[in-house]
Amino acid sequence: MEFIQQTFSVDYSFKVFFTRYLFNPANAEFRNYLISQTTPGLTKKLLFIVDDGVAKAHPALATEITTYLQQIEGFKLAGEIEIVPGGESCKNDQELFYRLVDLVDTQAIDRHSFVVAIGGGAVLDMVGMVAAVSHRGVRHIRIPTTVLSQNDSGVGVKNGINYKGKKNFLGTFAPPAAVFNDAHFLTTLPARDWLSGISEAVKVALIKDASFFEWLEENAAALVNNDLTVMQELVYRCAALHMAHIGGSGDPFESGSSRPLDFGHWSAHKLEQLTDFALRHGEAVSIGIAVDSVYSSLLGWISTAAAERIVNLLIKLQLPVYHELLEMKDGKPSPVVKGLQEFREHLGGRLTICLLKAIGVGAEVHVIDEMLLNEAVQHLKVNHASI
């Protein structure tokens, strides 16, 4: 049989900037980036979509953005700055998704313009999805405002919304044009959001960098006490590890089943759903890390002491390590275990779970022993549930 085969590759490149007071006129980072994107004779539009929590915590932000853009030739603000609900609820709101797609249309945002999202990871995920499917891809700029989004999701290549209760069931792989991490946004975070984002740093340290894990242990007290300088270092190191994996894994769009950056996430995603997202993503990930670390020790992969060291760090960071939904009831599997099947489907057919061979070394399995998993849960319940 005759056939024609086409093969091509696409190069992606984007920068993550680390700064403070991004829209202060004296800060040239955002201005210089836009100037680098100008086209002679063409005025490009910027559609800003802002998390309502950020807008409330920074009431002068809209004015600051408007004033800042007045300095920059070749760009203009597209209409009013759009304020949207933050948190996971925005990813469950299909009407909001389509309203923003309509906004891209009515504001005539073309492929030379930019959609700029300012907010937590959920808003970035949803707005990134809007940008990715409008005109088959409008360039988007991310300005993450939480610890979680600055050190993990905001610097990645994934976008998505939830569908029929399944997290990120609809989504795209679409790298941002640029990411701007402004540390000032972290100073107005509620304590719960400041702390919960640290779990992603623990995760990536456990699978990639033992020295970073030791640094987290040494700096746990400073992090709990809102030390911004220490948090900035955490964000930078964590973002660097995530980006190095995405760019160096050979599978940035996750076409295979290997997803080591999802260590602790198979149960976390299900816990979020079962608690109707009362658990923050980072809190659920912390619980998932604890479960999978103890499970790794029961497999004999890491020592009991290593597992306790991990759990104790999470506790020092005031993060949860247990939830009653993890338990078997009347001999029936925990409802969280059903998340294994959904996780397998999300991966594309083959269950692949990252566990630990050592602190700093992840390894994969394709089968989970549910009785051993329950033993890990019981260990956490008996020894740590009351902390």
Automatic annotation (TrEMBL):
Is the Lyase keyword given for this protein?
A: yes
- Known EC number: 4.2.3.4
Q: Which CDD domains does the protein's record reference?
A: DHQS-like
**Biological process according to GO:** amino acid biosynthetic process; aromatic amino acid family biosynthetic process
3-dehydroquinate synthase C-terminal domain residues are 197-325
Domain 3-dehydroquinate synthase N-terminal positions:
83-194
Task: State the superkingdom.
Answer: Bacteria
Checking Pfam families in the record gives: DHQ_synthase, DHQS_C
Cofactor(s) annotated in UniProt? Co(2+); NAD(+)
| Keyword annotations | Amino-acid biosynthesis, Aromatic amino acid biosynthesis, Cobalt, Lyase, Metal-binding, NAD
Recorded hits in InterPro entries, A to Z, give: Dehydroquinate_synthase, DHQ_synth_fam, DHQS/DOIS_N, DHQS_C
Return one GO MF term.
Answer: 3-dehydroquinate synthase activity
EC main class here is: lyase
PANTHER family given for it? Answer: 3-DEHYDROQUINATE SYNTHASE (PTHR43622), 3-DEHYDROQUINATE SYNTHASE, CHLOROPLASTIC (PTHR43622:SF7)
Q: This protein is called what?
A: 3-dehydroquinate synthase
Species this chain originates from: Chitinophaga pinensis
Q: What is the lineage of its organism?
A: Bacteria, Pseudomonadati, Bacteroidota, Chitinophagia, Chitinophagales
